[in-house]
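Hey forum,

I'm writing up a methods section and want to include a predicted complex as supplementary material. The small molecule is magnesium ion. I've pasted the protein sequence and the SMILES. Can someone with a working setup run it? I'll credit the forum in the acknowledgements.
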Amino acid sequence: MAQEKERILVVDDERLVRWTLLKKFTEWGYEVREAGSAGEALDLYRREVPDVLVLDVRLPDLTGIELLRQVKSQCDTCAVIMITANPQVDDVKAALKMGAFDFIAKPFDFDELRVTVQNALETRRLRAELDTLRDEVRRKSGYHDVVASSRKMTELIEFVRKVANSEASTILIQGESGTGKDLIAKFIHYNSSRQGRPFVTINCSAIPETLMEAELFGHERGAFTDAKAMKRGLCEMADGGSLFLDEIGEMSLVLQAKLLRVLEDQTFRRIGGVKDMSVNIRVIAASNRDLEQAVREGRFREDLFYRLTIIPVFIPPLRQRRDDILPLVSFFIEHYNHKFKKALRGLSSEAGEIILKYDWPGNVRELKNAIERAMILEDDTLIRPLYLPFQVTSQSAIPSSMDAFPDARVSESRWTELPSGRLLPVLEIPARGTSLEEVERELVHLALKQTSGNQTHAAHLLDISRDALRYKMKKFGLERIS
Ligand SMILES: Nc1ncnc2c1ncn2[C@@H]1O[C@H](COP(=O)(O)OP(=O)(O)OP(=O)(O)O)[C@@H](O)[C@H]1O
Ligand SMILES: [Mg+2]
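Reply by user p_vandermeer:
Happy to help. Structure tokens for the complex are below, copy them as they are.
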């Protein structure tokens, strides 16, 4: 098999130097491109990332060091060798710190140059190999797609890992919608000795009760009018593996009894069958409802509840583990960069603040959707607040302690309640849009007017510090309001 030639890009403003290097590198079997300026180099680089970049420290338009910085921020896989006529210690230090592989001095010692390029390529190969291996290990451990930075989540993962490797035959995962119950269920399966066997999912709320039983337990031929042939149920299919029962709170009482039997004896009967089938399955159940409440209301069997809660896993809502927010954002940005072939680098500082303040009632799913949307719309390198969903920006931008104003003799109908319980004046966004910044200015203005310019009081109304208020007054030119 013909191996593709490794590519070198030579950047130097001296034509003779380029020519010499081009000749040598070609002779040594590399494919070579050349550029006489940083601009030209960046153009070429964007079109096709070389394996090695040989870069002069002094260029007509940008310094080599600056070019190195730009190149490294775009793609980290290329090995950079700097060339210089008179190496200055500072340059050398800066370049090495920024990830340059090595320095070579002009005039060239070609043997040395050849070895340096070989070493650079070898290092690059080893690094790529290491990355692949690391990815593989992470994929195998199933850990790669669960972000857990907060203490609550790292502890949860540790616990769940233990559970996965235990003999536990039933596990109940509880948590609000979008907290990651599906994800943790898969994590448990793929981190258990059952990982080579099926992971079978059924959503108890999505299937009508009459079909559910046949889905779970299968039926014999002729068990009912439509049963033309024998059908295996999910319990059989999951044999040796895990059966994930999503939204178990929606299961009918009749089926709950049958499920309990599976959990207790690992046996069941197909519909219309006369013999017991025995299986070895682990049931992972999930619910976003309060099952205890359902038990009290007689909608959920108490014995099944106790059986399921032998090993309970509770995933806290995102607002109770805010340390996970930014790591999740980075994770989703990376995910969508890959999917949408974009190169966003993160959040603008304003967007970061807003995202951290928001309560995320839809939890991780809501955050993921918000990032997806922003990344579809955003053309800049950082996500700006402009592209965050309205409910997210509005919660953090509108001051939330209007109700603290003592003279607020207003009818309730003029206020709407925020998730935090605080009140917000009823506002509507006109179809042609508005400006968040101007709305903020108006609110600061209003607070100052209502308090006759009393800054302490106005800051209190807006639930910000006096310094923050002064800063905003200055920013919006409201310093002379009284
Ligand atoms: N810790 C996490 N790391 C990475 N992605 C996560 C994490 N938690 C949740 N997600 C992602 O958020 C989305 C919602 O998660 P999931 O479907 O598991 O939630 P759920 O609790 O099952 O929600 P529902 O109650 O609505 O079924 C998924 O795309 C999932 O991959
Ligand atoms: Mg789910």
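Some notes you might quote in the supplement: The domain at 151-316 is CATH 3.40.50.300 (Rossmann fold). Residues 397-413 have pLDDT under 50 and may be disordered.
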